[in-house]
């Protein structure tokens, strides 16, 4: 099943910065490790700083083990020492708009360039739980807070040089999603499967809308389906557990995300959906412009007081 899953080995300049939300485990962990191994500066944005630190240490250990195994096959005179991966952590709690904004402002204060934003972190709640902001947790953590980060970081990406990208880890589960403006915050009914699927659908709808409305088209935005991946999240999700016999490990699941983030072949490709490490097609549902406009009008209303003041300079609203 995974034989066609691969990404090119490229040399990433050390000053090229990648943010990976949820980079301490699963798909995000593997994406962060591989991008750092190829030379990139990687920031994993996570809620739990202790787990993030453990993840960074583990990445280094795994890299050194692999490096030394390859070096052992070389003549002694040709052997070199492993490098230190350039991975660091920043705190991010996507279930809070205030804490998400705190992460945004802390990154801005560092005056770093940003070449790729990988919106990977995701949750799958079994029961209806509301955040401190009053929104269903899947809706806020998987979709709304990531959208807030994208809207704040767009100008940084646009100023960071050639070939800057936004990659969203979505899911084929979007096909089971539906935009119901009368129940978007689950005021009437809640289902764990529908809530997760809807949040992934909204990511793709927003991708299509942003592709049309961002004024500077130099930054690309894509969405990826990683396949059915065995991660801590999916093991808790009843829908995805049904497909675990066909599941991929975290590395296999990360390959499509990595390819969308680093493959030179896809420079300039925007508003596209990846599956199995290649461009695929979504259904017509998220492509509907009226549906896109309704979702984004709602999203901007929810996020209004957290949005950049100059947003209309780079987004046609």
From TrEMBL:
Alphabetically ordered keywords of this record: Oxidoreductase
KW Oxidoreductase (keyword) present: yes
Signal peptide positions (record): none
Top-rank lineage group of the source organism: Eukaryota
InterPro entries tied to this protein: NAD(P)-bd_dom_sf, SDR_fam
Positions in coiled-coil regions: none
Keyword presence, Cytoplasm: no
Record GO terms (molecular function): oxidoreductase activity
Pfam families attached to this UniProt entry: adh_short
Family per record: Belongs to the short-chain dehydrogenases/reductases (SDR) family.
Protein name in the entry: Uncharacterized protein
Protein species of origin: Patella caerulea
């Amino acid at each position: 099943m995974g034989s066609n899953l691969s990404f090119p080995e490229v040399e990433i300049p050390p000053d090229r910065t990648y943010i990976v939300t949820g980079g301490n485990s699963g798909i995000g962990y593997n994406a962060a490790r591989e991008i750092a191994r190829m030379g990139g500066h990687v920031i994993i944005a996570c809620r739990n700083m202790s787990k993030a630190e453990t993840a960074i240490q583990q990445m280094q250990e795994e890299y050194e083990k692999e490096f030394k195994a390859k070096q052992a096959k070389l003549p002694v005179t040709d052997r070199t020492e492993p490098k230190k991966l350039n991975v660091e952590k920043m705190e991010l709690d996507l279930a809070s708009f205030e804490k998400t904004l705190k992460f945004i402002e802390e990154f801005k204060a560092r005056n770093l360039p940003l070449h790729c934003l990988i919106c990977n972190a995701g949750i799958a709640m079994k029961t209806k739980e509301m955040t401190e902001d009053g929104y269903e947790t899947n809706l806020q953590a998987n979709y709304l807070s990531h959208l807030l980060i994208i809207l704040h970081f767009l100008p940084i990406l646009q100023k960071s040089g050639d070939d800057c990208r936004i990659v969203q880890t979505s899911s084929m589960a979007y096909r089971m999603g539906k935009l119901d403006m009368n129940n978007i915050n689950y005021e009437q009914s809640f289902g764990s499967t529908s809530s997760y699927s809807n949040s992934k659908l909204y990511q793709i709808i927003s991708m299509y809308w942003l592709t049309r409305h961002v004024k500077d088209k130099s930054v690309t935005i894509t969405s990826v389906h990683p396949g059915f991946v065995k991660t801590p999240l999916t093991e808790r999700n009843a829908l995805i557990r049904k497909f675990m016999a066909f599941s991929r490990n975290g590395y296999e699941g990360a390959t499509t995300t990595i390819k969308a983030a680093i493959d030179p072949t896809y420079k300039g490709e925007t508003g596209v959906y990846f599956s199995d490490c290649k461009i695929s097609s979504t259904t017509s549902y998220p492509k509907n412009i009226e549906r896109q406009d309704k979702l984004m009008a709602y999203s901007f209303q929810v996020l209004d007081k957290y949005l950049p003041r100059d947003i209309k300079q780079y987004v046609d609203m």
